[in-house]
Amino acid sequence: MAKNKRTLPAPNTWDNSNQHWVSQFLLKGFGLPGNASHVYTLDKRTLSTTIRSVDDVASKVNLLTAQDNSRLTSIERSITGAVQRLRKGHQIHLAVKERQLLNDLVLSLILADPYSGVKREKLRKDVVQNTANMIAEIAFRNGLPVSRPRLQSSMHPLLPEDVLTLALDSENSLTSIALSLMGLSIHKATKPLVIGDSPVMIARARRNSVPSLLNFGSEIALPIAYNCVLVYDWVTEPNTVTLADPLTNQQSRLVGHYYWSISRCRYVFSRTRDALYEARMPYESLVESTGSVTPSTGWHLMQEIAKNSEIRRQLQDDQERLKFERGINTLATRGDARPLYEY
Question: Is 251 exposed, middle or buried, given 0-12, 13-18 or 19+ CB atoms closer than 10 A?
Answer without folding.
Answer: buried
